[in-house]
Write a structure and sequence with these properties.
The complex is a heterodimer. Chain A is an alpha/beta fold. Chain A is about 30% helix and about 20% strand. Chain A has a domain of about 300 residues: Alpha-Beta Barrel (TIM Barrel). Chain A contains 14 helices and 17 strands. Chain B has a domain of about 300 residues: TIM Barrel. Classes of the chains: A alpha/beta, B alpha/beta.
Amino acid sequence: MTLRAFPAALALVAATAGAQQPAATAKVGPTLIKNATVLTVTKGRLENTDLLLQNGKIAQIGKNLSAPAGATVIDATGKYVMPGIIDPHSHSMADAINEGSLSVTSMVRIRDVLNPTDINIYRQLAGGVTTINVLHGSANTIGGQNAVVKLKYGKDLDEMLFPGATPGIKFALGENVTRKNSQQAAQAQGQPLRYPATRMGQEEVLRDAFTRARDYKATWDDYNARVAKGEKNLVPPEHDLELDPLVEVLEGKRFVHAHSYRADEMLMLLNIAKEFGFTVRTLQHGLEGYKIASEISQAGTGLSTFADEWSYKIEAYDAIPYNTAIAMRHGVVTTVNSDSDERARRLNIDAAKMMRYGGLSEDSALKTITYNGAVQLGIEKKVGSIETGKDADVVIWSGNPLSVYSIAETTFIDGEIFFDIKRDQAKREEMAKERAALEAADRRRPVVP
Amino acid sequence: MTVRALGMTVVFSASASAQLGSFNPNPGPQGTFAIRGGRVITVSGAEIPNGTVVISGGKITAVGANVSVPSGAKVIDATGLMVYPGMIETGSSVGLSEIGQGAIATVDIQEVGSFNPNAQAFYGIDPHSAHIGVARVVGITTVVSRPTGGIISGTAALMNLAGDTPPKMAVVQKLALVVELPHSGFGGRGFARAAALQQGSNVDANRVRQLQMDSLRMMLHDAEAYGKAQAAYAADKTLPRPAHDVVLDALLPALAGKMPVIFPADRTNDIRDAVTFAEEMKIKPIIMGGQDAPMVASFLKQHNVPVIVTAVMKLPSREDDPYDVNFTIPAKLAAAGVPFAISTGDKGSEIRTLPYNAGMAAAHGLSKTDALKSVTLWPAQIFGVADKMGSLDVGKMGNVVVTTGDILEAMTDTKYLFIDGRQIPLDSKHTQLNAQFKDRP
């Protein structure tokens, strides 16, 4: 089929994308996965083990479990089960990425622009991904608020937002903020230079914003204290949507996920955070993190990096695939992320690379795409490993997920199947028929020889 | 080495540092090596569970289960290890583009103008590119590096990833012509593309494309006539001496069928157009990209046109495509009998993911042995160098990799590496920075 735009094709896209959605089920029955190799991530590898998913949770893990009434039983002999992959850096589903007009845009929210029908959700489910952290872009020093999402394709957005995930905000440092690579083009189109254009300015923007946030917080604290003391007829301070999220950062209620590449800019941020009394939750990319792994570790900050991307721009020229292993050996909670709809589909391979580059164990490699991501997003009590009582976000793989020859076969979220390779094949036949019918109905369709 | 911003000289200092010095350790001499006791994956024939591979004078001199070790050979104990021929990446521009964004002086990938057959990748390749050291330690020993852009982009080279000068790296200096045939549909290529886009009309775009196609045809016909005139003069010096023309000269090997022509093409129309055009001009096409090649597989098979598949890891291009539409391209081409190789299509820094592209294809229907062939023997065959590389056979170049396991697996590590019969230290920019910082307190 050619990529011509004509009305029937648009209808086709809508119809077929819909066909990939699983049938909506009001209540999900229990599932018993039998005789799998279970990679728990936190408690090692369990051979010939059963897993009972019930009421959206991992109900039981053990040998020879009996199936409760009405349970679907899946024979997973020879197959592997691992927790759903968590991608701590995604822009999937986002219809807008950057509010780049100002240097501080803490007031904007990614959740307002999320598209729950993005086909990339389905593609990532087919790669064993169940949770993503959708971040604002890196155009400005203080960007917008993030959204942590369970990839429950076919559901309403409200059902996809991860309940209880710690709110976060994107910060960004370095080249993307200085816009050294785009400012010239922007100016040519008549747009003015935007401050900051250097890393010096970035430090100042952060200091200014948190100084204002601290004063704002003091004003409110003062007001609230007086209210608490029973004072009457007080005029409350004005609300400030820009500073509210930064106050939450100061109070430890909102995580900072900071795009950064070079060691010096990361260190600058860690020092500012220390000065203002908060902890940076993650350095996103943090490609030169390995140069200051001790400082990152001492700050209690996490690192979320690429497996092996490098050299695509100057500040990525010193990126090395050993970054993850070096950071982990220094005690930094480290994850491998995608930052890409494409790479998100094969994070299992990226995790396996970490065994080659720096010699991570199988469990440590798996942690970089599961449990550690859960820690970084404040959801480790619910997801990230296979443990009784956790959310039933699990994936059955055809073989060891760290092998490039393995594929995800069934992906569960909260005990419900959102991708299944057999269902997918069956849907394709339906879609082919639907496509043929729609194409036959389109009289303007060009004839391709 | 760090890349620091010093006042206004960010771009300058970084581009300079990208070109000065070398992170790639020098290859050793062409000695005699006996790799013993490993599981030898010959690719061309059966694997040898406990075999020996002997390399001497730059070539493979023996492969087998009962091979005697020549006296004076350096013995490599490969017990518990696997022995493979080096992998070949055919879709790269290695050495032509070091830092794609913000360091324009490190990018020498595209000439000015639309018709540059005489622009040879060979003359732009930086043998000290850090990409080289990083890629070869995963077992990629040879690359096709090609210029891009314009309509006739230039001439690609086949380079070993070892050697401190381009001549030492080169296996075939002038390997293939690269023709980026104007796309069917919107926009064409080269200089006129932007104008066509601005005009905003498909009719205008198609007119631009026709003009570009006419210019290309004209140039090839000119070269044909030029070749005939030169040949006639060579045979009969009493004829008027035709002036030499370096641009037309560069087209003659392709027109004589001695050099293949790489046509980047992903859409079915573009693939068909490239093959049809090649037949019209009597040139030998290789399709590069091939995203929709499975849809025209029987056509490709019928015309016996090979495909360099660079799209395995690409996202599906249509919302209603199956999620695995590109993972399965190689399996579909194999089933249809279309010759192909797998490539990352990356300029340089990420070509080290080549084995995982092949592995992903194997996870989606391609046999494991075919997946391995698609990055070793088949690319060698497609470019007519299977007598030199692509398998472990006597007489081929000593491009050999010894690994801890399956070479297509991401967790597999390289233990020994030989290129052109020289042992290559397993060091790179990345191992150097790792060593410098891994134990920093």
